[in-house]
Amino acid sequence: MMKKRVAVLISGRGSNMTALIEACKDPAYPAEIVAVLSNKPDAAGLEVARSHGIEATPVPQKDYASRTAHEAALNAELTRIAPDVICLAGYMRLMSADFVGQWEGRMINIHPSLLPLFKGLDSHARVLESGMRIHGCTVHFVTAEMDGGPIIAQGVAPVKPDDTEETLTARVLSMEHRLYPLALKLVAEGKARMVDGGIVYSGLGEADRLSFGVF
Question: What are the binding positions for N(1)-(5-phospho-beta-D-ribosyl)glycinamide in this chain (predicted)?
């Protein structure tokens, strides 16, 4: 089986990156992580990746005078790596429309809410303030609109009456660690594709439907 080449972009400890690394250890998994890049040179996830024998390279934003210059350097690294899929895993930097356009349809992200609800930061606190009784996470294709790309898969978690931001964050993060590998598998197998700004599914079995929450 020819595995899809995956590059992961992080800014911090990379817990979702670690979940993807563990999933990729399965010989039957259709993807392999070939590189990890970070806009933060001290991101703890870089050392985690190296400990698994994965190339890990910082591309610090502070070393560049503008976002355009930083994105050019990041794009050069990605072009060298030649990934089939790019996974954003806690990459805390907005990308320009030009940059996203170069990788559109091949870049995915995980966000801690049931999009299109609660885009952006502080989603857990905002859910609690809203009085919502359900919460969750979403894996989506990346487009120029922040957290606005076509949804690949979602996972739902309850909001309990005694939840704090910390307990809710932990519950959703645990779900993220399960959902992201499943969604990447769907993309790597070509079962979920971005076409004309929307999502197209093909070849889904019953297990896929149940696992990915597609229907």
Answer: 14-16
